[in-house]
TrEMBL record:
It is found in: Mitochondrion. This is Small ribosomal subunit protein mS29. One of its GO terms (cellular component) is mitochondrial small ribosomal subunit. The gene is Dap3. GO terms for molecular function: structural constituent of ribosome.
């Protein structure tokens, strides 16, 4: 069965909320470097380095995080480093960056990574909403779907060449993807014909879910702001009636990936207040953000609370800010 949880498994809390692996020998005259480590492989991170910073090469960031790291984080750091605090918690405690650390770890371990960096973007401010040609009761979001496919391709290109389709897929009356073709052709269909992008995402997710149990690859499903998949949206139909999440093709297919009915991978998600719609700002517990429907859909899961910075994490950030001269006085 799947390893499920919000953000981190308990056995990985210290390891993955840390940011480093091997101690950096620090010269006495440069004591502030204790907040940083040269070990940039998450697989080597141990709890003795909890709260430290590590760097990710820019070319690797472009592959693992083609959508970019969170904007506010980039503004703060200005140097592609990951500072991870450790699952569900109050706003600003580090849930998104913890998830990024997990994504980086799995990418380094050779996993296929299915990453949705902000599920709330699928349920609000959609510029184009079209009736699905596959199911008239659902609505496609071609722009969001094509954008996700582009980033997914960047992160998993070698897998897409190796994984073959298990059946034939029709794209209208003329276009089709034959059985036994590389999954990359499905992705290209969604990119070349944006109208088919939402259905292409559905096919990709279906094939990955079916084939992950075969053992040829390990699959990480990482969703930031998973609570967006249940509740309400800001989207309206042509008749001005509200759109519910389950009517969206993207949401419908992503929900299937969160079910505990496949093997060969892990599901890691976070709850988010930041983009949450129609929820009080004080809400942060799973029951509050997911609602009964979402909570029941994900159950059983392992909820991992993300507390505020520990003293060690605070000290690391403090010394980092000093080094960057963002603080004028040390005291």
């Amino acid at each position: 069965q799947l390893d499920r949880g919000f953000a981190l498994h308990t056995t990985a809390k210290d390891c993955l909320s840390s940011l480093a692996a091997q101690d950096v020998q620090t010269a006495p005259e440069r004591p502030r470097e204790v907040f940083y480590t040269n070990e940039n492989n998450p697989a080597n991170h141990t709890e003795q380095h909890e709260g430290r910073l590590y760097s990710i090469p820019l070319d690797e960031v472009k592959v693992v995080f083609p959508h970019g790291l969170p904007y506010r984080f980039q503004q703060q750091v200005l140097c592609f480093s990951l500072t991870v605090s450790t699952g569900d918690g109050e706003r600003g405690t580090g849930k998104t960056m913890t998830l990024c650390h997990v994504v980086h770890y799995c990418a380094r371990q050779g996993w296929l990574v299915l990453h949705v960096p902000d599920a709330h973007l699928w349920v609000k401010n959609c510029r184009e909403l079209l009736q699905s040609s596959y199911n008239k009761e659902r609505l496609d979001q071609p722009l969001q779907a094509s954008s996700w496919l582009k980033n997914f391709k960047t992160s998993n290109e070698r897998f897409l060449k190796e994984i073959k389709t298990h059946k034939k897929y029709m794209w209208g009356k003329r276009d089709s993807t034959e059985e036994g073709r590389p999954l990359a052709e499905v992705v290209e269909q969604g990119l070349a014909r944006v109208r088919n992008a939402s259905d292409a995402v559905g096919v990709v997710l279906k094939e990955l879910k079916q084939q992950s149990r075969l053992g040829s690859f390990r699959l990480l499903v990482a969703v930031d702001g998973v609570n967006a998949l249940w509740g309400r949206t800001t989207l309206k139909k042509e008749d001005k009636s509200p759109v519910s999440p389950e009517e969206l093709t993207l949401v419908h297919n992503l929900r299937k990936m969160l079910m505990n009915d496949w093997s060969g991978g892990a599901v890691v998600t976070t709850l988010s207040q930041t983009g949450s719609l129609f929820k009080p700002s004080s809400a942060y517990l799973p029951q509050e953000l997911l609602g009964k429907e979402g909570f029941d859909a994900l159950d059983p899961f392992v909820p991992i609370p993300v507390p505020n910075y520990s003293p060690r994490e605070f000290e690391s950030c403090y010394h980092y800010y000093l080094q960057r001269k963002w603080l004028q006085h040390e005291k």
